[in-house]
Amino acid sequence: MKFTRHISTQLAARLDGQLTAAELRKAEEHLRTCVRCREESEQVRSGMAIIKSLESVAAPDEIWSSIEAGFQPAPKRPPWQRQWLLAPAVVLILAGIVWWRSASSWIETSSTSRTTISIGNIGTVEVEPNTRVRVVKDQPDEHRLTLARGEIRATISAPPKLFFVDTPSGTAVDLGCAYLLTAEEDGSDLLRVTRGWVSFQWKGLESLVPAGASCRTRPKAGPGIPYFDDASDALKRALETNGNLTIILSESRKRDTLTLWHLLSRVEVGDRARVFDRITALTPLPAGVTREKALQLDHQTLDHWREELAWTW
Amino acid sequence: MVRSAVIGFFIAALALADGFTFNIGNPVASGDYRSKTALFVFRTEGCADPAKAQISGTAEGLIKGMRRSVPLNLAKLSQPGVYGVNKSWTADGAWVVSLSGTCDHASAGAIIPIGPGGFIRDSSKLLPHSPTNAEIEASLKALAHTQGEKQ
Q1: What is the pTM assigned to this prediction?
Q2: What single DSSP character describes residue A106?
Q3: Greater pLDDT, A50 or A131
Q4: What is this model's ipTM?
Q5: Could you tell me if A91 and A213 lie in one domain?
Q6: A128 and A165: one domain?
Q7: H or E stretch including A72?
């Protein structure tokens, strides 16, 4: 087995005596030099100790149904892998008990497992393979997760701004929706909204991502420019790579005013007029929005313009 | 002078009602979280009192050559004249949403095809009257053809 830079996924197996001699030797060598993995190993060890100290209680029915829903049919695997397919489910059952005492336990899925977290009574989060997520807060007025890496699918049925997911490059604020959030290894995130809409926020920067659209965020840069998934490949490429405004403007359709509206406040001052002109070429300027105020990025004007543009998205 | 003002008022009211139409949008357009599960939202335009417009809708389907019609409960949202349309029909077959509305003496209609990703704006039709059966059939056949559905 070849270890990657960090050995997060092998820590539990190491403590449970499930690694081979060669794997254990490599793990020990890595831990001698890696502070992060040593700290994670201590967290796993503490978590196991807490679990062992708890008295047995019957798990509520909803935990079992959410665990069963998370099981996937698995191909035949070696005995030690089969055991660890059940591990995330076991951790979730036991973590459900731990949550009643501490809402800060990490949940980590292996490459072959997934699980489902119930978020109070407002929805569920499906945790995909190779994902590390933690429940930070679980109160009636705020449910908050931290996504360190991997992918989650959130389906939330609640008034807005009750459910939040923090990532290295921003916070996804639920405004009543279903979405897929992927935290990549380089610290960037990709948010894809399938129902409702999500606001992605970071240090005052905000991107509104409606159903059918996606938005990439980057560490230390915050939310990027959202785009509809059916936008042209050229437009999406230009957004992702070189930011070529000429291509973005020429490739944009009426629906891509979602992208253009967000661009208006992010391009150089000298380019704002080009973006403004492209939007107005695609759809008439609504009453109450003037060129002057829009180019000055007047907050009220831009908000009103977005509300009207949304009817073309 | 009063007579002129009254006549002017009625002409203006008729003119406004004559511009009566629907505008179809992504659920985000409503700004109302209750539309989060909606396929799309729509609003009435050109109606002096949107709250008094009479609106109705049906889901019209073509499933293996058989026609089906399902009445819709249109969700009134926080802004007057803005409604959400949630999916309340089977996943099989080709489906369009047919909307009809009246405001004073004016009528409006719309046919909105529904695809896997939600409503299909490019194929949607806005009409100055309630959709006719022939118009609904034509939209269904076009959608079914696109989806490869047998008629």
Answers
A1: 0.70
A2: E
A3: A131
A4: 0.83
A5: yes
A6: yes
A7: none
